[in-house]
Hints:
Elements: H1 2-17, H2 32-37, E1 47-57, E2 60-68, E3 77-88, E4 92-99, E5 122-128, E6 131-136, E7 141-145, E8 150-154, E9 160-164, E10 171-172, E11 200-202, E12 205-207, E13 216-223, E14 227-230, E15 249-251, E16 269-270, E17 273-277, E18 282-287, E19 293-299, H3 305-314, E20 320-327, E21 332-337, H4 342-353, E22 366-368, H5 376-388, E23 395-398, H6 419-427, E24 432-436, E25 440-442, H7 448-456, E26 470-472, E27 475-479, H8 485-493, E28 507-511, E29 531-533, E30 546-548, H9 549-570, E31 580-582, E32 585-586, E33 594-596, H10 604-619, E34 625-626, E35 628-629, H11 638-648, E36 654-656, H12 672-687, H13 689-702, E37 707-708, H14 710-713, E38 727-729, E39 733-735, E40 745-750, E41 758-761, E42 767-769, E43 772-777, E44 785-788, E45 791-795, E46 811-816, E47 823-829, E48 843-850, E49 853-858, E50 870-877, E51 885-890, E52 893-902, E53 907-916, E54 921-926
Parallel strand pairs: 16-32, 22-23, 22-36, 23-24, 24-28, 28-31, 31-33, 33-34, 35-36, 46-50
Antiparallel strand pairs: 1-2, 2-3, 3-4, 4-21, 5-6, 6-7, 7-8, 8-9, 9-13, 10-13, 11-12, 13-20, 14-17, 15-19, 17-18, 18-21, 19-20, 25-27, 26-27, 29-30, 37-38, 38-39, 39-44, 40-43, 41-42, 41-44, 45-46, 47-48, 48-49, 49-54, 50-53, 51-52, 51-54, 52-53
Helix pairs in contact: 5-6, 8-9, 11-12
Amino acid sequence: MKTLSLLLVVALSIISSLAVDRNNFKTCEQSGFCKRLRPFKSEKSQYALNLDTVMVHGNVLGAEVVTQDNQGEKNNVLWRYTLKLSALVDGTFRVELDESEPLYPRYRTQLALDGEPKEDSLKLISNEGGKLTVVNSQGHKVIITADPLKFEFYNKNGDLAVVLNDNNQLIVEPLRVKREKIGDDDEAAAVEEDEGAWSENFKSHHDCKPRGNEAVSLDVAFPDANQVYGIPQHTDNFYLKTTTSGEPYRLYNLDVFEYELDSRMAIYGAVPVLYSHSKRHSAGVFWHNSAETWVDVVNYADETVVSSLVNLVTGGRKTRVDARFMSESGVIDVFVLLGDKPSDVFRQYTRLTGVAPLPPKFSLAYHQSRWNYADENEVRSVDEGFDANDIPADVIWLDIEYTDRKKYFTWDPEKFAHPAEMVANLTAKGRKLVVIIDPHIKREAGYFLHEDATEQGLYVKNKDGNDYEGWCWPGSSSYLDFFNPKVMDYYVKRYQFDNFPGTSKDVHIWNDMNEPSVFNGPEITMPKDCRHYKPPQDGHDGLASFWEHRHVHNEYGLFHISGTHQGVLDRAGGRYRPFVLTRSTFAGTQRYAAVWTGDNSAEWGFLEASVRMCVSLAASGISHCGSDVGGFFKYPEEELMTRWYQAAAYQPFFRAHSHIETKRREPWLYPAATMGRIRDAVRRRYALLDFWYTLFYEHSVDGLPVMRPLFQEFPEEEETFTIDDTYLLGDRLLVRPVLSEGATSVKVYFPGKDSKTLWYDTDSYQAYPGNGYTTIDVNIAKTPVYQRGGTVIFRKERVRRASPLMADDPYTVVVTLDQQNTARGSLYIDDGETYEYRKHKYTYGRLAYSADRMTYTFIDKNAHYPTRSWVERIVIAGIKNPPKSAKLVQDGKVTPLQMTLHRGNDVLVVRKPAAAMAKEWEIQFTY
């Protein structure tokens, strides 16, 4: 045991050094394929389309692509490739390029897509002058230049939106057989292999690279674009900056302890989708690849050396952005999204990778966590602390110390000896429990999971084909190979109540460390030459019989959470919606889990970064995002803690969490005034819980982000293109959190100049016109939040200890009028936890206001949920000509209503209309 403890201390010291030592992570120069590919620039692409092989069938154009020698001699073909261009529904195209006869199969990302994309039609309309022109059913056009190969994509308005291989940086490194040197004078010795072609070293780690070089690269141009966005997870701005003077953006899921701010370094997530935007149009590309990826960006409007030279030549600013994807392995598989507006490209992407299914309602409420609540008594104490201080909370979380010595699917027999009773005490109050399950498995004799995995061959293998052994929290660990269906079946069954005693339908799961994190591995992760399961195929053995970790790395966490999601779903017969939180993220994560921004610090910069990181993830399909409130590391003083709660109350995932070595920081441990402000922030979240729930339901239908950049709703307003400290919730609330220390005022950008949009302060109902920046005074209790004119939001004002107890509480309906004195809003209601809504057991209503009436009708007439909630108050802001009387008409009954007008802010309050939300109704006004 002393030896084990010493080794673990050594491993942890490696991790601790990451807080300040960037040398533990590769630069582009230290990543062999990035170093090799990034300098590559060619006047002419070697890739050419063989026009004699072109065939169009259904929605696919197929052809052969060849590479030629440097002199471009067509009779000297070096390599042959198979090209597929597919037309997909909703203005999307897919371009695939693979070796025609690869030495081994090349890896294709497996789980990111939400099923096979739906097909559109494709028609060849021209084959002249070395160019092909094809169109889809919507009028989007693609022009393919044969030699050199280039793809130009035009949206349905005729604008050139995306160009592939415009800069001749298309590369598919063909798989080769390694040549052995025989002697200095041998002919083979004259053929020098590229440096690092068959092996690479990083620090003390050796990567054997048995397949050799197999990288792919493609440049993407966005003509007329002002900005590009996406490719999370990074800590710099939402809008991406030119990378020519530094490192490219890196997409490689890593456990970066105390990650840096304003950095392009890889951290926990890698979502390879990129969007462009200008006043004319929006577009996007989804790089469907799960290997390590680097992305260069050149925005010609940036004030850089490159843009200055371009401006000198062109005589002005050039609005265009170029990007280049470089991945270590895989095939060229890229989806082109032709917009035309930001909402279009965001929807097109989620149509490919899926939407977040409707989450259980409690998951949108407040969560309290710490590494670690030490025992059952401490859980009970925290639970009671919320009640004693009148602060709502829905979930208590347990980190790794709840287990029996870091063995997952177990409980500490002394500290958590009665888990079922502990859970029952929480659920009696309407609360839930979340426990952590990580992918590393403790290598301990007698531990059932380790014994099963060893006996049944369930672990990832090392390069020699033996069980891979690394170091993580338990010490010596191995890692389940979720790519193996046998492993997945075994793992899913671990969540059955009989296999995980003490759990119930009200215990949900947190998957951490699933990049995967390996303390003694290269870059604190799994070696790339580890082996994963590959389905057996005839004639494929040796290197063709397994995938290497280099091929699947960014997908590893995705497979992990898909298994967790399925396990939590299956344990109660598929009746209840799972809640899973993940740290590792990739394209498609939203189908299985919520995400948080990882191990942040109690610093103002990390609070600020939480906004732009979650906006970027939401635009990339992952709306259910938040940060550790207060920061994971260090201790937040009163002002920072207050501002963090106030900001997080308006972010989708709302959880306080902290490091085991930090000072305790439950809200009541702060001075009374600070606790009161934290309580106010949490109560504001609960008042809007049905608003959040409605937004997530609508996301599950239309695929649009819940947390939105301003330019999504105001795409022609250039000032919004680079604003990432302010955002929208749906199209209804504008949030500008206070993100700096000692602030007494903030600048708020109110969009909507051309549309004459009004924005109403949610505290005072003061109206602000959409005329750009306005300085707003703030005190420590104020968060600038504004409801858009022309919208309706449903609130619940009664304070309860947890959200399930609010189900039948009455609504306060807030109506903010636009310039035409109208407003519209929606409300979704169901049981909050089951899948009964899929059987039409829900209510989805629309409330429309005009000067003479307010009408509540059902959007889906075939659905019904027997809610007992009702309307106790209606607030109408911006009313210039108040009615003299009002009456409620519901179920054939007419009821006179009382109203109060507040002239100071033009607010009319209709008191106690008692309209039932389970039935349609109307309020009629007379003047």
